[in-house]
Amino acid sequence: MLKAHVIRRSWKTALAYLIVGGWSLFAVLMILWIIIASLKTTRSLFGAPWTLPSAPAFSNYVKVWVSNRFDDYFLNSILVVSASVLVLLLVAVPAAYVLSRGKFLGRGAILNFFIFGMGVPVPLLFIPLVVLTTELGVIDTLMGLSIVYVSVSLPFTIYVLQGFFSSLPAELESAAVIDGCSDWQVFWHVMLPLAAPGAATVAILNFVALWNEYQLSLILISSPENRTLSLGIYSLITSMQYSGGNWPGLFAGVTMVMLPTIALYIFLSERMISGITMGGVK
Amino acid sequence: MRRRLIITFLAPALILYLGFVVLPAVRAFYYSFFQTSGFKDQAHWVGFGNYVALAGDPIFWLTVGNMLLILFVGGIAVFGFAFLFTILINSGLWGKKLFRALIFMPNIIAVVGLSTFWSFVFMPRYGLLTNFLNSIGLSGLAVIPWTAPEHLFWSMLVGLVWISAGFFTILVLAGADKIPTDMYDAARIEGATNRQMFRFITLPMIWDVIMITLILWVIEAIRMMEYPYAFGGPNIDQNLYTPAIYLFIMGFGQRQPVYELGYATAIGVAMFVFTALAVLVIGALTRRERVEF
Q1: How far apart are CA A168 and CA A172, in angstroms?
Q2: Which of A98, A180, A242, B200 keeps 20 to 30 A from A258, CA to CA?
Q3: Do A120 and B21 form a contact (C-beta atoms < 8 A)?
Q4: A214–B9: do the CB atoms touch at under 8 Å?
């Protein structure tokens, strides 16, 4: 009796490992496959998609880096995404602090007003944003794209940050006030250091999200020299229709866009996952 | 906190949010009452004309149909996987954090990269799927044209579900993890089965998490654009159109410019209304006493 029970249990455990492990392994194999594909010739990619290349074709990288201008795209992405994340933190951290610790009429309403923004479908803003950035003269510029990135990232960022600030103990704040700190000093010397891990988490999450996004850059950027990396890959997909299928080159571009975020993820996956679940599941 | 600090801390965020999210959203409603092909062009006030045209536009209803398929068929698959993985991972597997990290991983890779990979998987003749099916001797299945119009949407949905399942798994898992374990211990002593524990402890305890994740899914599904659009590549097939893709094509054109800006924004307003309605419905359906502990 007992033995049968144990066997059935171990059967179930093995099945659980198989399902969860298989699903997990798939993502890893996909990444490896993409990297290998980026080092093959078109003929060997199509003829023998599962094998290693006899000699790695680094020329795929040279080609997209030079003739497809991925050097510009990479630099643009680094520039736009870092600037956006930096400004986002400068703007969102103080706002989230006030919205979670301040005592004033309308605090909850303003907070809800920000959170409401998470439900606005971004495509609704496509045409108004094109009109607005044209009026401001920042359409098709990296600066215009950054301003839009910061603005649309505010709802999620403020939501997560205010949850973080609310979880900090109130005693520290009142102790600092009793010791004679001004409210600026309370923020700068007491709350900000405590909130640093939360700020770092939203910074990473937004970095990855903005690095990967391409729909807003698709509508706001028209000059090839201003493309971001994700948009560059999309335009490479579009151009393949005319230039024939340079799939290895495309996978070289994909490798370039995915390696930085994967590298971040290897070191910071726990922090990123806890940041997202903190926002959704309090 | 002094008033001055509150205002200085709030003002930059409020200005950006009002200027680049709220104001454009309000302007979208306004634009949707015009027929216009650009800003220099004279815009004609058409009242609800765009909405009337939308109601009679078979392509729009096709996009709504696709949206509903993503929402319901995709949603059932996504949440099915999310619950399955939560149950399996929490059944005492070794390496929980590793599995969680790997299941979530597609979400940190650029959507254009993922759609490129899946395009290659489903590619006719040379695709990885066809190749794989041939190599294991299932040539009967290998001849199925996965990117033919009647299969294309479902091929797209596979990758979409794969990505989203990872996202919602970590949310459901986090919800399940906040349940105190002594509740399960007590139930086990009373002789409860796994299924009973799931039904009578897990589900009620994570009810609020389920509501939030459902709302997130609905928002995501209604505004879906990036994955199917990149999966479709140049000259995207109409079977892949979502409302957002149709909006984009009506506003900015595909091969030929269309520039129906008023019409395109009306689609955006429709998406906004769908989202609002869906959130209200979920709110009403899932309203019940929250379990405090």
Answers
A1: 9
A2: A242
A3: yes
A4: no
Give the residue ranges of DSSP H helices in B90-148: 96-104, 111-122, 128-135, 139-142
Per this entry, what is the length of chain B? 293
Q: Count CB atoms within 10 A of the CB of residue B2.
A: 11
Interface check for A90 against chain B (CB to CB < 8 A): the answer is yes
Q: How far does Cα A154 stand from its chain's mean position?
A: 14
Closest to B119 in 3D by CA, of B251, B240, B242: B240
What region does A268 belong to: left with phi over 0, alpha with psi -120 to 50, or beta? alpha
- Angstrom distance (rounded) from CA B289 to CA B113: 43
**What residues does each domain of chain B span?**
59-285
pLDDT tens by residue, chain B, 293 residues: 688 889 999 999 999 999 999 999 999 999 999 988 775 667 888 889 999 999 999 999 999 999 999 999 999 999 999 999 998 998 888 889 999 999 999 999 999 999 999 999 998 888 898 888 888 888 777 778 888 888 899 999 999 999 999 999 999 999 888 888 888 888 888 888 877 887 888 888 888 888 889 999 999 999 999 999 999 988 899 999 999 999 999 998 776 667 789 999 999 999 999 999 999 998 888 776 555 55
| Chain A residues touching residue B98 (CB < 8 angstroms) | 24
A183 vs B5: CB contact, 8 Å cut-off?
yes
Q: What Å distances lie between residue A63 and A55, A249, B184, CA to CA?
A: 17, 7, 58
Q: At a CB cut-off of 8 Å and minimum separation 6, what does B171 contact?
A: A276, A277, A280, A281, B82, B209, B212, B213, B216
**Cβ within 8 Å, pair B110-A229:** yes
Residues across chain A: 282
Half-sphere exposure of A129 (CA within 13 A, CB side): 31
Name every chain B residue with its beta carbon within 8 A of the beta carbon of A208.
Answer: 108
Tell me if chain B has a CB within 8 Å of the CB of A88. Answer: no
Write the residue in B108, B111, B167 that is nearest to A265 by C-beta. B108
Is the distance from CB of A128 to CB of B29 less than 8 angstroms? no
Residue A121, chain B, CB below 8 Å: the answer is yes
Class of domain B59-285 as given by CATH: mainly alpha
Whole-prediction pTM: 0.93
Alpha-carbon Rg for chain B in angstroms: 23
Tell which of A8, A20, A266 to mutate to test the B interface (max B CBs under 10 Å): A20
Residue A126 · residue B268 · CB < 8 Å? yes
- To the nearest whole Å, the CA of B156 is away from the closest chain A CA by 16
Q: In terms of Cα–Cα distance, which of B68, B19, B83 is closest to B278? A: B68
Residue A219 touches chain B, beta carbons under 8 Å: yes
Helix, strand, or coil (residue A48)? coil
Contact yes or no for A234/A218 (Cβ under 8 A): yes
